[in-house]
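Reviewer 2 asked us to include a model.

Predict the structure of this chain.
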Amino acid sequence: MSETELYRALLAGPDEKTVFLGPGVQPQQLARYAAGLANARGGVILLGVVNGRVADASGLEPLQLGHAVYQLSGGDLLVHVERIDASEGVVWALHVPKSPFVVAVGQGAAPYWNGRELTTLPASQEILSADPSAKVLAGTSLRDLDPQAMQTIRERLRGRGSPLAETSDLEMAQALGMVKESQGETLPTVSGLLLAGSSAALARSLPQAEVSYYRHEEDEVDYSFREDMVKPIPAALARLHELIQARNNFQALHVGLFRLEVWDFDVEVYREALLNAFVHRDWTSTSTIQVHHHPDRLEISNPGGLAPGMTPQNILRHPPQRRNPALAGALAQLGYVERAGLGVDKMYRLMLRYGKEPPEYRSWQAAVTLLLHNPGFDADFVRWVSQAQNEQGAFTLDYLIVLAALRRAAQATSDLARALQLPLPATRKLLAKMQQAGLVLPQGRGRGRLWRLAQGGGE
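Predicted model (structure tokens):
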């Protein structure tokens, strides 16, 4: 947001998507306003405004603001904090995404911003925003939770040092949101069945939990091997790992004193991709997750389109939104996923640092496919990046995106902006920093300017 846009907002006053708060607001209240916006239409909090005028908030730290909202919302809300330098002082713009589920802060009713004041969430809105993974399915019982699967969860918690590992099965399940009270009974939730349901219970009550794996030879449409599995998520992940690793090769690369193993498909990357498919899929859909394993790519498809406003062209920058927060929360406690929604960044970083192509998303209204490409890897580029990081420290994801984009040919600033999913001004600032660090060099001037890797960068 520019200074001009800030003053335009001040003249217009607060509305359904804009909240003004003074610099002295307490963290709990800030988090409640953020949750109120998230539960309504999403929007922006302009922090450092009193009575329609700028009240300098330069004493506040952006990381602390974002962390406070994240912590006080129980990890359900991640906001983007932007600094606005106005003539009277600093204003912080907290961009709050609309949440697909109800966000609460502390005890009591969930907050809701109605355009004029912070109130409580309307009952109709709460019904519409219900989390499908937290629901109880008719005809289920605690007998549908498999003892062996529960033991797997317990061992996972014990390995993380969680005190939940030493509680009873029921207490452990309650803490993970795997069960809830319904009409006087304790019953498994959708999350509970997905994490520890028996194959029979899943097939009966949640058949869309099936995952299909296909192995293809070369680039053939027909598959040479297929396995359909109806298992709880931990067991499905383990079996998919076995199937993919059976045809996953690696090349050893020596960088200085270190030996790197560069796999066709990095284990952490495809594991993250599979978890994303489970966490973000539409569990109300009867369609299933499909994994197509080609020699040159992995294709992982799941039902449910990207979140509203999210596209393949902005997925790196869009605030994360979870379709199934109860399931995501349980998987986070078990150490499978990050609550902050860092999966996409993690996949990009791991693939780019090994000279691979970045993940490719293809989106439709009711489905998403993630492609992990295996075109080989650029050994000289990997060595150069490793050496540069040893000298300068670990690179940010933005640095890696630029370096990977330039490793084959020089590119214009506009092309790099698209790869980064950033505006042109932010891209120019980033390139200036990278030039100062001796990583990239400009060619030409004005609109004809191109950027290339500095000498030794693989050209």
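The domain at 211-373 is CATH 3.30.565.60 (Heat Shock Protein 90). The two ends are 38 Å apart (CA to CA). We have added this to the supplementary material.
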